[in-house]
């Protein structure tokens, strides 16, 4: 027991002992290696306070740092080459088939043995089999798996590409291009969710961009703690996550749901667009995705993807679908030419309608004026017939007409003015009959 200098290694070995053996081992360690004993005690204390997953999270890297180099080793029908990645759960090597059947570039992930002992091999193989059933261009394929020297290994597709953050540093992408790239990531995560598996460790380092600019998800967290997969009194999960992108419930060791991946995607989206306008659609989407409470987030990655697609297409997002002014503004932004054409048609229609209504009103007024003038003429003739004792002179008729025009409330003012002007105009003097007869006689030969 005291042959190792690693507190994590000692702790794992100590877990396999009986109670009496554990007490004896701790006493021996305190005498022989007091410094190591001081490092092991916090691990045991955490174990006694039911914080075992945190122990693995904080100390899993010890095995990775002191691991054996497997370069050149043959595992089953695969030959390992150089190390291409490492993490708290294990190592990743590039590999090829060693059975001379056909050439295939692969990546093999070796999960450290102590995690295998804690989680149970069957749980890991079950998760690996689920991953193998995933068939999506945005997810690295899983081909095979097995056990080698007490370590579970998983054979995966080897992707020649860059991590998302490195890709963005080398490429200058527009807002639209970033959104399209992120939507592809969402589609891959959504496909995994459709098969009832979470990624549970989404971060830029676990998203590779290949030569065709296709994002691919790697390193699914096989130690994820899912409510639907956990039996009563059985917890074979570890808190393995990236603190910057992990959801609050994942950090607390609670059960994970699809909203946990939604949170991680929201944090990645936040990194993709560090400068966002306040009250913009993108800002609202990010805030919704990274809400502290899971029930406040999008219900699924599909809902998040739909809103991003709507932003890309200049359509209203679901968070503002009850704002008429916003919906109209989005419509104008999306179809400016058609909106202008419709506006012109509406303006033309309104102008035509106004012209027709105005003309009808004008005709109605003219008809009314004509009827009033006809009425005045009728009344004038009636008064002329009613004067039997004394003939009605023209001056009297004009005076009567003038009074009736002034007292008529139905005649417009400008018509009254014209009629009164005509009434006060002097009548031409009729020619004398005698002078006319003389003029006629003179002209005869």
Automatic annotation (TrEMBL):
Query: Domain Protein kinase spans what residues?
Result: 78-338
Q: Which Gene3D superfamilies match?
A: Phosphorylase Kinase, domain 1, Transferase(Phosphotransferase) domain 1
Pfam family name, one = Pkinase
Q: Does the keyword Cell inner membrane apply?
A: no
| Tagged with keyword Nucleotide-binding | yes
Q: Fetch the InterPro entries from UniProt.
A: Kinase-like_dom_sf, Prot_kinase_dom, Ser/Thr_kinase_AS
* GO terms assigned for molecular function: ATP binding; protein serine/threonine kinase activity
Listed A to Z, the keywords are: ATP-binding, Kinase, Nucleotide-binding, Serine/threonine-protein kinase, Transferase
Name of this protein: Serine/threonine protein kinase
Give the lineage: Bacteria, Pseudomonadati, Pseudomonadota, Gammaproteobacteria, Vibrionales
């Amino acid at each position: 027991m005291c042959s190792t200098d690693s507190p994590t290694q000692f702790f794992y070995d100590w877990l396999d002992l009986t109670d009496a053996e554990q007490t004896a081992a701790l006493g021996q360690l305190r005498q022989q290696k007091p410094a190591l004993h001081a490092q092991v005690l916090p691990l045991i204390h955490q174990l006694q306070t039911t914080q075992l997953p945190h122990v693995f999270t904080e100390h899993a890297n010890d095995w990775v740092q002191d691991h054996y180099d497997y370069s050149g080793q043959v595992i089953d029908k695969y030959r390992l080459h150089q190390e291409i990645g490492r993490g708290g759960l294990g190592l990743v090597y590039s590999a090829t088939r060693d059975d001379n059947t056909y050439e295939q570039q692969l990546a093999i992930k070796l999960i450290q043995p102590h995690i295998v002992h804690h989680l149970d091999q069957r749980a890991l193989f079950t998760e690996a089999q689920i991953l193998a059933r995933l068939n999506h261009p945005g997810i690295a394929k899983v081909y095979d798996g097995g056990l080698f020297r007490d370590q579970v290994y998983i054979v995966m597709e080897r992707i020649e590409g860059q991590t998302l953050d490195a890709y963005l540093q080398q490429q200058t992408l527009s807002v639209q291009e970033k959104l399209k790239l992120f939507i592809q990531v969402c589609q891959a995560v959504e496909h995994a969710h459709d098969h009832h598996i979470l990624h549970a460790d989404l971060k830029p380092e676990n998203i590779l961009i290949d030569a065709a600019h296709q994002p691919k998800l790697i390193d699914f967290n096989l130690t994820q703690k899912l409510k639907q997969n956990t039996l009563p009194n059985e917890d074979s999960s570890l808190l393995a996550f990236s603190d910057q992108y992990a959801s609050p419930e994942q950090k607390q060791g609670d059960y994970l749901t699809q909203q946990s991946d939604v949170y991680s995607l929201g944090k990645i989206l936040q990194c993709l667009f560090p400068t966002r306008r306040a009250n913009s659609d993108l800002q609202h989407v990010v805030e919704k995705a990274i809400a502290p409470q899971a029930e406040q987030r999008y219900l699924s990655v599909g809902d998040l993807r739909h809103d991003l697609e709507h932003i890309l297409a200049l359509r209203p997002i679901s968070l503002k679908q009850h704002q008429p002014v916003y919906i109209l503004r989005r419509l104008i932004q999306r179809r400016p030419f058609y909106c202008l054409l419709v506006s012109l048609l509406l303006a033309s229609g309104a102008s035509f309608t106004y012209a027709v209504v105005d003309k009808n009103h004008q005709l109605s007024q003219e008809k009314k004026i004509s009827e009033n003038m006809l009425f005045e003429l009728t009344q004038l003739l009636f008064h002329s017939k009613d004067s039997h004792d004394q003939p009605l002179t023209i001056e009297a008729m004009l005076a009567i007409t003038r009074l009736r025009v002034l007292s008529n409330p139905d005649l417009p003012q400008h018509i009254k003015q014209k009629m009164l002007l005509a009434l006060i105009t002097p009548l031409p003097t009729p020619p004398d009959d005698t002078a006319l007869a003389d003029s006629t006689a003179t002209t005869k030969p």
